[in-house]
Amino acid sequence: FMGEIVDDKTAFTVGSPVSYHSSDPAQDLYIDSFLKYNNMAALDSDTMTMATAVAVAYRYYWMEDDKLKATLLPSWDVIYLDYEPELITIILSMKNGKKYADVFKGSVFIRLALVDGGDFTIKYNLLGQPVVAYPNNPLWASDVYKVVEMLDAYDLTLADCINETAQLRTAYLNIQGGL
Questions:
Q1: Can you say whether residue 140 is alpha, beta or left, with left for phi > 0 and alpha for psi between -120 and 50 degrees?
Q2: Are 57 and 81 in contact (CB under 8 A)?
Q3: pTM of the complete model
């Protein structure tokens, strides 16, 4: 059921890729290059799939070689604190056997190594918060949580049927003298 819910919603929502247009032809060229460079149709699909399954998806945007790049972050590696007046995002990662926490607070980026004697980097003047949350709905709830109880009930019912069948076979063998 969960897979069907996620697949149906993703296919319905982003089955036809979103198109972007501007009144300025130069902006249209930039948008087209951004969409192709980042394979946005696939990224949109993956974002919708993640948000549907786990309630929220996160994208990370950065500049590389004078091009804006975008990638989907694993939701379980992101801590997203929406406190006024600034948004704070923490991304947990592992590189070269070391655990890191990348902290974004306003225009400040801090990379902390989570092991003794690790690295410590601070960068300022980000253009803005590079991590953007894409919640599944205003409640920040998954679409599949609604069916978890039904799945548990189906599993319990199926297990009970299997147990009843096994007990009936055992009783029949006892009556026939097979045990």
A1: left
A2: no
A3: 0.65
Partners of residue 100 on adjacent β-strands: 93, 113
What is the token pair recorded at 93? 């990662």
pLDDT per residue as tens digits for the range 106-126:
666 777 766 655 555 555 545
Residues in the chain: 179
User: Can you list the positions of beta strands (E) in 2-86?
Assistant: 56-64, 67-73, 78-82
107 and 128 in contact (C-beta within 8 Å)? yes
Tell me the average pLDDT across 75-90. 71
CA distances from 76 to 22, 68, 82, 91, 108 (A): 35, 24, 17, 9, 22
Structure tokens of 1? 């059921």
Question: What pLDDT, in 10s, does the model give residues 135-175?
Answer: 888 888 887 777 777 777 888 888 877 778 878 888 888 88
* Spatial distance between the Cα atoms of 112 and 96, rounded to a whole number of angstroms: 14
Structure tokens at 169: 């076979």
Angle, to 10 degrees, between the axis of helix 2-14 and the axis of helix 145-176?
150
> Do 72 and 46 contact (CB within 8 A), yes or no?
yes
